[in-house]
Amino acid sequence: MKRIWILLCALTLLLAGCAAPEAEGPELTETEGRALIALNREGSLSTLLVTEDGEAIVLTTEINDAFCGWSSGDRVRVTHDGVSETFPAQTEVYDYKTLAEGDWSDIPEETVTALKDLGWDFCLDVHAPAAEPQTVEDPVTGYCGNTVTEVTLDGETYSFWGDDSVALTDIVINLAYAPEAVCKCLPEFTVDTEFGDGYGVNLTESHVRCEAGQAPLTAEQTEEIRGIIERNCK
């Protein structure tokens, strides 16, 4: 009986040793380069990594709100799996980090040209602040400091009221929006008010857009909004 028990134990160990190994995760690599924000051929926003040798790689990920703080030219590092052999190439990102700020001058011109030839767009429209406020003939008035304004910036939503809420609401809801003025520049943040929502604001290019169209901001309005954001969206 003892011999049979020993044989059963040996057989169990043998079978365990022959069991299929556990599935391994993807082999990951770290790559540094420059961030590039663009609209792909379908008009969807994409984030790419431009490597040291000028290769453009489209970054995909399941991380919520990934890359939202990046600007084109920033030096970044991504942890990713294999790179496809398409052009532009594509890879899945599992972790990422911003290393240093940058700008468009850090992106190789030949990389941008090659992507443009494929129908990619980089939102490089040039805008100048309006000389005079672009306000509608009959602006909305009468709201008080209790009106609440929400700003969504870098994936976070900030709510505030008081003088800053009134000032920001007064600017965005009373601009004379023109549907033919809408460009491809992307909003830097969105503003929702009690009197209308979905206002996309780009302070770099001094304009606001909504379903009705787009309107330029004056330099003074741009700086006023910038101050409101700095005070209430930390």
Description:
- It is a single chain.
- With 234 residues, the protein is α+β, with helices and mostly antiparallel strands.
- Helix content is 21%, strand content 30%.
- The protein is built from 4 helices and 11 strands.
- The strands form 2 sheets. It has a 6-stranded antiparallel sheet, covered by helices on one side. Strands 1-2-3-5-4 form a 5-stranded mixed β-barrel.
- A hairpin with a 2-residue loop joins β8 and β9.
- The longest helix is centred in the first third of the chain and has 16 residues, at 2-17.
- The termini are far apart.
- Mean pLDDT is 85; it is low at 1-23.
- Structural class comes to alpha+beta
Main sheet summary: 6 strands, antiparallel
Helix percent band? 10-25%
Q: List the helices and strands in order.
A: HEEEEEHEEHEEEEH
How many helices? The count is: 4
Radius of gyration: 26 Å
Task: Describe the global form.
Answer: elongated
Round the mean pLDDT to the nearest integer and report it: 85
Relative strand content: 25-35%
- What is the number of strand segments? 11
Distance between the termini: 75 Å
Which stretches of 5+ consecutive residues score pLDDT under 50? 1-23
Main sheet: which strands, in order across?
Answer: 7-6-8-9-10-11
Task: List the SSEs and their pairings.
Elements: H1 2-17, E1 29-39, E2 45-50, E3 56-61, E4 75-80, E5 89-100, H2 109-117, E6 149-153, E7 156-160, H3 163-173, E8 189-193, E9 196-202, E10 207-210, E11 213-216, H4 219-232
Parallel strand pairs: 3-5
Antiparallel strand pairs: 1-2, 1-4, 2-3, 4-5, 6-7, 6-8, 8-9, 9-10, 10-11
